[in-house]
């Protein structure tokens, strides 16, 4: 993944678009797929405002085993429906190597969550599918470990990896995580892979998502992946960090100079 070996930016295909290169992209959607109505409504809203892909978890690696764990295959089927009805690609997290091939039939990009960045069998499994992969940085992973995790996927012959900085664990407890913008700038120098930022998990606070999205664009990220919900109070996960329709519209207005840089 070293830039010395491949000086040109990798462009990872995603549906009719790509991540990396000139255009700053916004991927958006709910933390979890909760129902057809919920997913369809928020997907239509973010697409209408310029999102290039829909995110939504069907398998949720929750901190508590008693929290909502996701709809599983039902959720994947709903993501497929969104893809077919709205013509927009989808991204969803895979948490088990046995599911990788199956999930590749339902979604356009496989997400490796922060908790699984060190799950090397899972990295190999998504590598083997050949599907584009969104690799999230582990909660306490160094940049070197992050890049080596990406190597596991590339070593299987899959070059389509997008790195995602989603905040790291620090002494600070006022925010959910500490978004490491240093890492974004450094990664852009060290690797040819696209780098996106997740300001939702990076801050855990809805009101901070727009400022940190602007920061992501300013520091040179290739895009952001943000959580959004039509009714965050009712969300089954991460409602406190989900952008409402109003805030999502504001986000896209504020990012216009970057998104338009195509
Ligand atoms: C998510 O994207 O919903 C998620 C669980 O993120 P992370 O793995 O970064 O915590
Ligand atoms: Mn979430």
Summary of the model, kept short:
The protein is an alpha/beta fold. The protein is built from nine helices and ten strands. The protein has a single domain (12-58, 67-251), classed as TIM Barrel (Alpha-Beta Barrel), CATH 3.20.20.
Question: Would you write up a description of this structure?
Answer:
The protein has 262 residues and is α/β, with parallel strands linked by helices. 37% of the residues lie in helices and 15% in strands. The chain has a single domain (12-58, 67-251), classed as TIM Barrel (Alpha-Beta Barrel). The chain has helices at residues 36-48, 73-86, 100-104, 120-129, 143-154, 181-190, 199-203, 206-219, 245-259, and strands spanning 12-14, 17-19, 25-29, 53-55, 90-93, 109-112, 133-136, 161-165, 195-197, 223-227. Helix 2 links the parallel strand 4 (53-55) and strand 5 (90-93). It binds phosphoenolpyruvate and manganese (II) ion. Residues 31, 57, 113-115, 136, 166, 198, 201 line the site of phosphoenolpyruvate.
């Amino acid at each position: 993944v070293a830039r010395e070996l491949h000086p040109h930016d990798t462009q990872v295909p995603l549906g009719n678009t790509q991540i990396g290169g000139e255009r700053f992209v916004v991927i958006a959607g709910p933390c979890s797929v909760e129902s057809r109505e919920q997913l369809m409504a928020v997907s239509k809203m973010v697409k209408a405002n310029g999102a290039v892909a829909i995110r939504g978890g069907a398998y949720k690696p929750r901190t508590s085993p008693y929290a909502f764990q996701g709809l599983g295959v039902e959720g994947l089927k709903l993501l497929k429906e969104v893809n077919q009805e709205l013509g927009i690609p989808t991204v969803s997290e895979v948490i088990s190597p046995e599911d990788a091939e199956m999930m590749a039939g339902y979604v356009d990009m496989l997400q490796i969550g922060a908790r699984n960045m060190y799950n090397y069998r899972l990295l190999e499994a998504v590598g083997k599918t050949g599907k584009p992969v969104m690799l999230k940085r582990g909660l306490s992973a160094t940049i070197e470990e992050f890049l080596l995790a990406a190597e596991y996927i590339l070593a299987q012959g899959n070059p389509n990896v997008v790195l995602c900085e989603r905040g790291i664990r620090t002494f600070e407890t006022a925010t959910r995580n500490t978004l490491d913008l240093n890492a974004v700038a450094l990664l852009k120098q060290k690797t040819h892979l696209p780098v996106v930022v997740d300001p939702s998990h990076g801050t855990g606070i809805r009101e901070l998502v727009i400022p940190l999205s602007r920061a992501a664009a300013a520091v040179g990220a290739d895009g952001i992946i943000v959580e959004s919900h039509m009714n965050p109070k009712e969300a089954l996960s991460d409602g406190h960090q989900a952008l409402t329709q109003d805030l999502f519209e504001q986000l896209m207005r504020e990012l216009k100079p970057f998104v338009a840089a195509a």
